[in-house]
Amino acid sequence: MSKQIDQSEENDSKDVHKKVLPNLQGQKNVLKQKTLTSFMRKKNETENEADASVSAITRNIVKQTENSVKAQNISSNITTLRAAEESLVGFTNWKTAIEVGKGFSRHELSEMHLTAASRKAEKTKRIETDTSISTLVTSTVLLKRRYYFKAIVKTILFLVEHHLALRGNWDKEYHEEDGLFNSLFDFAKERDPDLVECEKFMPSNAKYTSPEIQNEIIDILAELLRESIVREVLNADVNFFTILFDGTKDRNGDEIVSLAARFVSSGKPVEVLLFFETTEDAMRILSQCYDGASVMNGYKSGVAKRLQDVLKKIIPYVHCFNHRLHLVIIHVVKQIQAVKEFFDQLQLIYTMLKKPKIKKIHEGKSMKRLIDTRWTGHKDAAKAILQNYYEFVDTFKLAVKNISKEIDGEDIAICTGILAVITRKTFVFILVCINEILSFLAPADVIFQKREIGYKRVMPVVESVKTCILELRNDKRSTLLDDFTVEETIGERSGEEEIIDVTIAELEARFSENNSILLALSNADSMDISELKPLETVGIELPSQCELNVAKKYVDRKRADHEKSNAARMVKGGKEKDLSRFNILETLYDAQEPFRNVYNLFATIETFACSTSVCECSFSSLSLVDLPNRLTMTNLRLRNLAFLGFESKRLRNTDLDEVLKKFNSSKRRKVQLY
């Protein structure tokens, strides 16, 4: 009897199912929706795909509702099955789909939708926690893969740090590349058996040593390094930084710009290279330092003016002191014809001494090339001639005699002319005068090249240089010759005075600041609030005069103790190099608690830059990468390699695990590292 009832209930269920789904067999196009893919079952190879799907759906629905039919009436079964049907086949009518209480709103409550949403959330969580199914391998395998990949990154780091090329030429005989990366990585495997063992866990098609992967790792290293520098700038002692900018051209003629930032960290000024990256908070820019090109300092539409217009704040522009000093020499040369001819003659001497046959007979010190963009070449050339004057004269005398018969007639004629020029009294006079003036300018050039030197510390040096050159104009120096008899004059006193006057005029024009803000920086050590007032216009908060007075007494006391300490070292036989230099900023940094506002003031003042030497130094790094045999690299790769090579000390602190994680998550990888 029980069996008959069960059979009857089963038949009723089937009848209900047939009534509810009378036309389901014919809806082939609807049943091809992607939502049915998880329910499809194959009966055999020849069965129609739609029929198989319908059959599978029917069996699934009947099985799920079989037990519930026993306890529910026919109408509730019909509603349940109809809802299941709608959730499976989707909607063909948009109005029905968005109707409240039906359509999508009903589908969201269906078991199938809730299950799918739950699985999607679970998958997202696994990915975020690095526990996705694709990485559910043993921890040992993951460690070996990471060990292998870190060896690749270390190899690239070594080559980049030393400005070495990664790739070489294709060896046709051995069918492999003879680049440094492959050679160095093979050498590492020879020295490290663990690396060879770890390589076995890498698929043959995912060794991660291809040029594309190398470029990707270089990009990641550059990105991480820039991010760390930006964090360092944002975490500076004070909320200000200065931007430095300069440009040059690579061997392909493309313009390469160098962007740097200056800030104060742990009581010391720091200058770092950013290239094309900068911080997002541009309102923290305190000043800007560029060369004197009109496109940069134009008062109407120059970069300096436009930056102030965009940010709607005063951002003082500082003309790079290195460029200023070079312009002084260039304008002196242009304005005085005798000086211009003198340096043209030095250039000709350098050219002749580079010829092998003349170079062979020269026994004195060699000359350096005169560079139009760097005045130090002029100084070095004049110094070499002055210190080895007679050796140069003897060289050209021997060249004119041509004892070895190896020098051709054209070179002999040129050497004859050079010999006649350098033995004139006028040439010797200008040589001595120019060498003396350029020697006075040398200390300024040295301090301008130091990256940690700020605006406040260079102005006293500039004033000292101007004073020393001005003293050359003083007649008091002639008393030094009172004990000698002057037999003959060379009649060049007026020429000397002209050179001195033009040099002083150029120094005054280019290093006399009329800007009240820059004048306030120069007088900061006085700690007089009346002289510091202009700094408020750029958003610098000034402490009270009382606090400044107490801080000044403290600094003076520390300076006296420092001088006593240095004197004691000298008494004990110490050398000058063992003496330390007193620094106000570092002194205040050690006493931040009582003098917080005063320290913030001096840290902000040290943020002002005086030169773009850090940008110019970066061009040296660029030249080490931009070699004639590496002209095919992309501009982005060239910039990244130069940037990484220049900031190599910071690059050594790169967290390799961060590199691996960024590489692992940047694309879909064949081999997962986490």
From TrEMBL:
Origin superkingdom: Eukaryota
Region (Disordered): 1-27
Annotated protein name in UniProt: Zinc finger MYM-type protein 1
Species lineage: Eukaryota, Metazoa, Ecdysozoa, Arthropoda, Hexapoda
Gene designation: ZMYM1_3
